[in-house]
């Protein structure tokens, strides 16, 4: 159990081009939190210079429109700091990436427009071992499930993670022709003609 009187060290990674700057402002003005660093852009975002991380320590990541890169960064940091607590905020439909984010080591997921005081509460909940999802997650899940089959959703997730057709076939244990057939059906449903168009449209679904 963490000591309640110790300030919570928060490292903010903002890959969102400043979509919710109020979070850093709010936390920096609170005696309860101490900003350990603020980085923008995946290449520069690192706190390894801190050496042994102060406790309690939490990373708050404002995700970009390239979840594949964000997830790779998360995996890299978790490999260095196995007990690292990470909270991500996304303005996009993150249902497709939910399992991947959990497997990467994310502790909580929030909408990008979450109010700063709510983010502060989630930071505390995360340190106390709690997990929850916004109601909107279930709404998005129901929406996607009503449009796509389970295998199409699996395929969409792999598209969003930048898998090639060959990699998808291996991951799903099917032939490349089957993958191509599924992609055609997905494109038809989304009324797009490319992977990039499919990912963009699915991420913007509400």
TrEMBL record:
Superkingdom: Bacteria
Domain HTH luxR-type residue range list: 141-206
InterPro entries on file: CheY-like_superfamily (IPR011006), Sig_transdc_resp-reg_C-effctor (IPR016032), Tscrpt_reg_LuxR_C (IPR000792), WalR-like (IPR039420)
PROSITE patterns xrefs: HTH_LUXR_2
One biological process term in Gene Ontology: regulation of DNA-templated transcription
Annotated Pfam families: GerE
Keyword Nuclease: no
One function term, GO molecular function aspect: DNA binding
Keywords: DNA-binding, Transcription, Transcription regulation
PANTHER family tied to this protein: TRANSCRIPTIONAL REGULATORY PROTEIN YDFI, TWO-COMPONENT RESPONSE REGULATOR
This protein's name: DNA-binding response regulator
Protein species of origin: Paenibacillus chitinolyticus
């Amino acid at each position: 159990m963490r000591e309640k009187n110790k300030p919570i060290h928060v490292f903010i990674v903002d890959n969102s081009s400043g979509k919710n700057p109020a979070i850093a402002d709010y936390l920096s003005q609170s005696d309860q939190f101490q900003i350990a660093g603020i980085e923008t852009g995946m290449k520069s975002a690192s706190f390894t210079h801190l050496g042994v991380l102060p406790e309690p320590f939490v990373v708050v990541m404002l995700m970009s429109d390239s979840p594949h890169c964000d997830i790779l960064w998360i995996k890299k940091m978790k490999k260095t700091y196995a007990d690292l607590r990470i909270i991500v905020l996304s303005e996009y439909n993150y249902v497709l990436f939910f399992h991947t984010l959990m497997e990467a080591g994310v502790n909580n997921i929030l909408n990008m427009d979450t109010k700063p005081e709510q983010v502060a509460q989630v930071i505390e909940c995360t340190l106390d071992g709690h997990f929850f999802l916004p109601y909107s997650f279930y709404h998005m899940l129901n929406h996607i499930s009503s449009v796509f089959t389970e295998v199409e959703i699996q395929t969409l997730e792999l598209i969003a993670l930048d898998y090639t057709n060959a990699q998808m076939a291996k991951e799903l244990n099917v032939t490349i022709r089957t993958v191509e057939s599924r992609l055609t059906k997905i494109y038809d449903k989304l009324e797009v003609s490319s992977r990039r168009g499919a990912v963009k449209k699915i991420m913007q679904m509400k």
